[in-house]
Amino acid sequence: TPAIAAQPEKVSVITTAHRGAMAYAPENTLVAFKVGIEQKATWIESDVQLSKDGVPILIHDTTLTRTTNVEEVFPDRAPWKVADFTLEEIKQLDAGSWFGEEFAGEQVPTLAEMVSQVRSSRSGIIMELKAPELYPGVEQEVIDVFDSFPGYVNSALASERLAVQSFNWDSMATYAELQPEVPVGLLGTVPVADLAAYGQWADQVNPNFGAVTADYVDAVHAAGMVINTYTVNEVADMARMLDYGVDGIITNRPDVLEDLLAQR
Ligand code: G3P
Ligand code: CA
C-alpha cells in the first residue's frame, strides 16, 4: 500500500511568521523562513518583487539598501532599486550581515527557492505582492512559479496552506481572475461600506492591528471574509485581537503567539 502523505490538521487560529520570523533572523531569507517553520507558523509571510530580468524574488523594500550590502558591492548604482538589478547581481549580495554576523552569506531568495523549502514542511505561504504597480505582469510571474511545482497548489490549498495578499487591491483583483482557486487578501482597512462588494471576490481583509475593533471583525465576517491582522508582537495585543475574534495574527514572534494559544 502506498504511504499516504500526512496533511497538517486544519487550523483554528492562523499564525503567520512575518517576513519569516523576523525578530530572530534576517527578514525574507531562507533562514528566517526556517525559524518560522520551526516555530510552527501556519503560514510564512514574505514580500515578492521582480528583478530586472523578471524573476520573482523576496525582499520588502523597493530598494536593496536596508537589507543587503548592495552599496558596497555596486557603489555606482544609486538609488539601488530592486527593479534595476538582475537576479545574477542580486545573488551576489549579502542579505544577512546587517542583522548579525552569524547570518553572513544569507542571500535574497527567489520565490521558487522559498516554495521549494516550505512545501516540504507543515507550514504554508502567504505571499505579499509588494508594490505590484512597479512590476506589470507580476501576478502571472508569481503564478508561474507556483505552477512550476507539480501538484503544489492543489496540495497546499487542501490544507489551507497558500494565499496571496497586497496593499494594491487592483492587483489582487487581477490575481483572483488569473488563479481563482488561491485565496486573495486585501492588506489595509477596507471601509465597512465597501466590505460587501470586496467580499464578492476577495477572501481576506488584513489590517494593521491598531485599526481593528470587535465590530470591524464582525463586519468582515458578515461580508464572508476572514481577517488576519499585522504586525502583533506583544502578548497583550495578541490576546486582545484573539478576544475580538480575528482569524489570524501576523507576528515577528510566532513562538510567543504559539505559547499564548497553548494557554487559551
Ligand atoms: O503581512 C502584513 C505585513 O507584511 C504588511 O506590512 O510592511 O511588513 O509588508 P509590511
Ligand atoms: Ca509584507
UniProtKB/TrEMBL annotation:
GO terms for molecular function: glycerophosphodiester phosphodiesterase activity. Keywords: Hydrolase, Signal. Coiled coil: none annotated. Its EC number is 3.1.4.46. Residues 13-261 form the GP-PDE domain. It is an enzyme of class 3 (hydrolase). InterPro entries: GP_PDE_dom (IPR030395), PLC-like_Pdiesterase_TIM-brl (IPR017946). PANTHER family: GLYCEROPHOSPHODIESTER PHOSPHODIESTERASE, CYTOPLASMIC, GLYCEROPHOSPHORYL DIESTER PHOSPHODIESTERASE. This is Glycerophosphoryl diester phosphodiesterase. It comes from Microbacterium murale.
